[in-house]
Each structure stands twice: as structure tokens, then as C-alpha cells.
Amino acid sequence: MALIATTGTWLLTALGAATVIFFKKPKDSILNIIMGFAAGVMIAASFWSLLQPAVERADQYLPVPAWLVATGGFLCGALFIWVSDKLIGLAQRKANTSDSLQPNERLRRVVMLILSITMHNIPEGLAVGVAFGALHQNANTPDAIMASVSIAVGIGLQNFPEGAAVALPLRREGYSRFKSFMLGQASGIVEPIAGVIGALLVVSMESILPFALAFAAGAMIIVAVHELIPECQADSRKTNAYHATMGIIIGFALMTLLDVMLS
Fold this sequence. Notes:
Blueprint: H1 2-17, H2 28-61, H3 66-95, H4 101-137, H5 142-172, H6 177-186, H7 190-200, H8 202-232, H9 241-262
Helix pairs in contact: 1-4, 1-5, 1-6, 1-7, 2-3, 2-4, 2-5, 2-8, 2-9, 3-4, 3-8, 4-5, 4-7, 4-8, 5-6, 5-9
């Protein structure tokens, strides 16, 4: 059941990534809105989908203060992305020092984006797996099953804009529609794997999950603030800067709507 549920959440990620087929060569203003939309989705998801559940689960399952788990996990996630960024840049410089900086910069940005969304999808897959794994220990009643299904449905619907948040910026970076779609959907394929692991190790995963959720939030925030927002505002002299800003607002509002409505 956990495998079926998380496969469904992954398919919704793929469906969101498939929106990239509608874009050929959009204007700079549209590209800025797309990049801003991705940043807004990630910022909202980092709180509503990750930090808030991390605090709630830490209060329920861990003996340490919830603020310590949430803050520590958040900082570790941001540190992980920062170290990964430095290692990617170092590897690129060692691999080929003759190329111009622009292709390397584009590749680094793409890797950071995919890595942060993937880090976000792992604890979400674990959360679904834990919910279905708990059915084996608790009464396997229709109400309990529906509660687990609702968690999977909520996460799945949130994954649709997240799939778009990966694929559309990749299209902006010059990737083909097919490659943008493939990389976008690949960011969600970790959910079935994490879901099965969570169902098999439901007892231990219940205690690890709060830290994992906060860790993913830190990873998403640093990518949104350090990569996406500056990029969508980079050519504000040529285009209206409020195009990107409104993209951020729309992305944040949409993700907030889905998370609060489905929680």
C-alpha cells in the first residue's frame, strides 16, 4: 500500500513536470515569472510541508525540544547544500579549466535545484510510508486507512507544482523540453523508495522523520534564496522586476492554499 501510494505521488510530480511541454521560447518576463513561481513554491513548501510537520512530530515522538530538532535540522540542511555547492564548483574546476564559466554556472544551478527538491521529496515519501506502515501495528480500520490515504493525496497534490518548479526553470536554463521533463520527474522518483523504507522501518523512522523534514526545509530555502530569486531578478533593468515578484507571490500562495486546505 505504501508503494502504491508513493508511486501515485511520484506520478503527480511527473504530471507537474509535464507542463514544460507548453513552453518553447517564452519572453524574458514569462521566464522570470516561472523562476519566481518556483522560488515561491519552495519557500512555502519549506514551512507548510516541512518545518511545521517537523515541529508537530518532534513534540509527539521525541524527548528533546521541538525547537532544537527543527532549528538543528534546518541549519544542517542549509549547510549540506552549501557544502555540496562548493564541492560541485571544485569538481568542475578540476575537470575542465579551459571552458568558460557560463556552462559551469548553469550546471551548478541545475544540480542545486534538483538536489534540493529531491531532499524535500525523501522525507515526504517517508511520511507516507510511516502512515501506511503504522496500519500494521494499529487497528487496520477504514478510518485509519482513509487517514493514511489523505496524507498521500495531500502530498501528491503538492507535488504537482513542485514538479513544475523543477522542470520550468530547467527549460529557462536552455534544456530541451524532454530533458527538462525527465529531470523534473526524476526528482520525485525517490518517494516510492523512501515510502517503502518508511513502511518497513516505521518505528525508527517515526523518530528520524522530524529532523529529516527540517533538514529538507533548510536545503530548499537556501536554493530558493541564493539561486532562484537572484536569477529571476537578474535582468530587472530589461524587464519589469515585479513580474518575478508576482511569480514568487503566486507560487507561495498556491502552495499555501494546497498545504493548508489538505492538512
